[in-house]
Amino acid sequence: MATAANSTETLVFAEPTGVGRRLVALIPGLLLLAAVGYAGKFIEQTIAAYTRSHHITFPNIEYVLWAIVLGLVISNTVGVPRVFQPGVATYEFWLKAGIVLLGSRFLLGDILHLGGISLLLVGVALTLSLTFMHLLGRFFGLKPKLTSLLAIGSSICGVSAIIAAKPAIDADDEDASYAIAAILALGALSLFTFPLIGHSLHLSDKAYGLWAGLAVDNTAEATAAGALYSDAAGKVAVLAKTTRNALIGFVVLGYAIYWASQGQAQSIGNKAEFLWKKFPKFVLGFLLISLLATLGYFTKPQLTSLANLSRWAFLLTFAGVGLRTSFRELGKQGWRPFAVGAIGEIFIALVTLGLVFGADRLLHL
Amino acid sequence: MSGSKALRRFSLDIYAVGLALALALLVRLNVLPAVKW
């Protein structure tokens, strides 16, 4: 399976050959991402046009869902041939470029307001979820470092956080792949459950977006879960998730210090350098574009173009989410890490839902 | 330093930010035609 673990960092650098040849190797997979994503968009538009012309009342199913489902069908039936894998692995690159471009749709004041609320809620949810995950891991008899990875993955930022934490706490490859598999499987499930729960609770776009951004692990899945609800919810989900991502360095540093104090990891020398290294730099790009938009650097039609570029980048991302998820591979990882992750996720989803309801009442989202 | 070694010094995030900022600049300078969805 092409997991995010081997996707992002090795995106362009997988083989020790020329840069040009590596870029050429991305083309088949990029074309596949574009084809699957565009097919999703085509299906959405075709169904909408058909139901409109025949006066049939039918809920609009977003291209996001079609692109993910098409990708899932391909990866779980014929599989993704090796020639496509380097290009498919670029989905996270498009996600980050899309998030930076999405900054143009936020005024800096909105970011400070919603981001501030998100930060407050992330702090509370993080403390509760880390504690709960460690209790669960102990109850299920998981190895302590595997529990640490699952706790970091489910409370902060999914796969990226696990990849960032693995070397910092000297965790085994096997533990990291278990934790990544569990987080990916749960992320796939949340895509289908979160919008249904949100609609059944009649959550507003802002409240739902905040909930998805706080509770869904992986940035790609959080973005997709938000976009599946509505465009406005997708925007808020990205902002909340980006706030969560910004804290990745602090949590990983905390764990690194803990495991070093236990003599089971190397101690961290320069902590500021460590934090900068782990800080997701695309957050700065997102803030910069938002600042430029707030200062009136772009005209209205230009802002529309930037928002549409962001949508195209997300279209490639959502196709990649489906294409990189293989249920057969996920099933091989054993049930216990999955069980700990699943129970932890339900706990986090409930806690964050409670926090969002509370914030909606007290802080008027 | 070879091209590939120079590339390795930067993370994926930097490339994503670079591409997004370059696109934003092209849009700002009206080099890119209006992007439709």
Describe, in plain words, how this protein is organized in 3D.
Chain A contains 16 helices and no strands. By secondary structure, chain A is an all-alpha fold. Chain A has one domain (93-363). Chain A is globular. The two termini of chain A are 40 Å apart. In chain A, 52% of the residues are buried. Chain B has one domain (1-30). Classes of the chains: A mainly alpha (365), B mainly alpha (37). Chains A and B meet through helix 4, helix 13 and helix 14 of A and helix 1 and helix 2 of B.
Note the main attributes of this structure:
heterodimer, A: 365 residues, mainly alpha, disordered N terminus, B: 37 residues, 2 helices
Q: In short, what is this structure?
A:
The complex is a heterodimer of chains A (365) and B (37). Chain A has 365 residues and is an all-alpha fold. Chain A is built from 16 helices and no strands.
Helix count, DSSP H or I runs of 4 or more residues of chain A: 16
Our count of domains of chain A comes out at 1
Total domain count of chain B: 1
Report Rg of chain B: 14 Å
Order of helices and strands of chain A: HHHHHHHHHHHHHHHH
